[in-house]
Amino acid sequence: MWRMMGALVAVVALVGLTISHGNLSAQPGPHGVVPDHKQLICHVADNARSFIIEVDDSAVPAHLEEHGDCLINSTDRSLINDPCNPTDANGNDICDVQP
């Protein structure tokens, strides 16, 4: 009986650690704030609709060069999926109209 109880406790502990580790690793940073390695951009989609997305820093150059996207000067994640204006008239990669 005690062996079965010990085995059950071990299994529950392993499952708990696995679940909590998965949840902790999924947390990118403080709630609502873009992590240091992410950037908000105004993304021009294939259907010509523009909206704010969050991308890893390593993906920013491709978005700026290939999609005509521009940078959003904010770390507020509540802006994600909001419509945006991708105009960058002065060519500095920063959106002229900020949310």
Class computed from helices, strands and strand pairing: alpha+beta
What is the total domain count?
Answer: 2
Gyration radius, rounded: 21 Å
Q: What does the largest sheet look like?
A: 3 strands, antiparallel
What is the topology, as strand order, of the major beta sheet? Answer: 2-1-3
- Mean pLDDT reading: 76
Low-confidence stretches: 6-29
Helix content range: 25-40%
* β-strand number: 3
Q: Quote the distance from N terminus to C terminus.
A: 63 Å
Characterize the overall form: globular
Q: Strand share of the residues?
A: 15-25%
Write the element-wise H/E pattern from the N-terminal end onward: HEEHE
Helical stretch tally: 2
Give your account of this protein's structure:
The chain has 99 residues and is α+β, with helices and mostly antiparallel strands. It has 2 domains: 1-30; 32-99, no CATH class. 33% of the residues lie in helices and 16% in strands. The protein has 2 helices and 3 strands. The protein has helices at 2-26, 60-67; strands at 38-44, 50-56, 70-71. A 3-stranded antiparallel sheet has the order 2-1-3, covered by helices on one side. The longest helix is centred in the N-terminal third of the chain and has 25 residues, at 2-26. The protein is globular, with a radius of gyration of 21 Å. Residues 6-29 have low confidence and may be disordered.
